[in-house]
Amino acid sequence: MRNFWQRFLALLTPGVQLLLCLLAAMYLAAVIGKWVRAFDLYDWLALSGPKFWSGQIWRLASYALLPVGILDFVMNSVALVMLGGMLERHWSRGELWLYCVVAAAGAGLTKVVLQFSSPLPLTGAAPTVFGLLIAWGFLCGRENISLVPFGEMTVWKLVVVAGAISFLIMFFTAGLVTAIIMAGGGLTGFVYLWLKHKWLMSRASSVIHSERINRLEL
After folding, report:
1. Which of 15, 49, 92, 162 is the least crowded, having the fewest Cβ atoms under 10 Å away?
2. What would the pLDDT profile of 79-128 be if each residue is shown by its tens digit?
3. In the CATH scheme, what is the code of domain 2-217?
4. What is the DSSP string of 92-157?
5. Domain ranges of the chain
6. By C-alpha distance, which of 156, 155, 138, 127 is closest to 195?
């Protein structure tokens, strides 16, 4: 148990620490606001189709700052530490934050398109976690990982299994549309990383091509 906590705390990179502090502060403020009946952050930041299409575009990502409840907050915080900590070692702090916003906005856009007239609000960081899971597979997919009791498997296989299980749980508890919305965060993250990879590859190839031309001219 001691080794587990040491490894867990080692994943608390600076960017992840700030994200956790932000999520905790927002959740605490939302609870206090409801308790004293002074304000309602969920009414200000949660996402719904009618409010988004009326011009409140910040809701496309702000909903992810407000957990559904304490269990949702704890589970998503643990996932954020484990996945976000690994990803921040590949990226910069800003790149991690930008990716989280992109994943949340992608799921939010899926929500307002599929449920454009529904007042049912969307909150929680689950779509962002889906995105982080996909990013882990995208960056470390060929690496092998040992998982008891399943043995050794690649990261991509683990990502697919974990994503499928999460999708099915969401499907049976909240319905197909909600499951698609949550998975929208992962799909958006994958498209974003794929386009970024293509752009970096084309940029690198153009630089190499220019260097060869310069050598020939010399």
Report:
1. 92
2. 999 899 889 988 989 999 999 999 999 999 999 999 999 999 999 999 99
3. 1.20.1540.10
4. -HHHHHHHHHHHHHHHHHHHHHHTTT----B-SSHHHHHHHHHHHHHHHTTSEEEETTTEEEEHHH
5. 2-217
6. 138
